[in-house]
């Protein structure tokens, strides 16, 4: 599985993506590693196994 990070401020696109990921029982947070909210600048969608590793990589870079 290849993770897909989305950056940007087009909230309507991000909200649609977040809904699809959540419906698939995966995890979605903002790029800042906090819960995805209206003010988030991007999303990190991933399953539980990948999500922690992606967030760790974002903190390093």
Describe the structure.
With 61 residues, this protein is of the alpha+beta class. The protein has one domain (6-60). It is built from two helices and three strands. The chain starts with 5 loop residues before the first strand and ends with a helix. The mean pLDDT is 82. It comes from Paenibacillus gyeongsangnamensis. This is Inositol monophosphatase.
Any idea how many domains?
Answer: 1
Order of helices and strands: EHEEH
Could you give the distance between the termini? 21 Å
The geometry reads as globular
Q: Find the structural class using helix and strand composition.
A: alpha+beta
> Widest sheet: strand order?
1-3-2
Protein name: Inositol monophosphatase
Keywords summarizing the entry:
61 residues, alpha+beta, 3-stranded antiparallel β-sheet, 2 helices, 3 strands, globular, Inositol monophosphatase
Task: Summarize it.
This protein is an alpha+beta fold. The protein contains 2 helices and 3 strands; from the N terminus they run βαββα.
Question: What is the fold's blueprint, element by element?
Answer:
Elements: E1 6-7, H1 11-23, E2 27-30, E3 42-46, H2 48-60
């Amino acid at each position: 599985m290849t993770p897909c990070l989305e950056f940007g401020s087009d909230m309507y696109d991000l909200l649609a993506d977040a809904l699809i990921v959540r419906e698939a029982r995966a995890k979605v947070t903002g790029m800042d590693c906090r819960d995805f909210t209206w003010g988030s600048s991007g999303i990190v969608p991933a399953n539980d196994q990948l999500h922690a590793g992606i967030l760790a990589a974002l903190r390093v870079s």
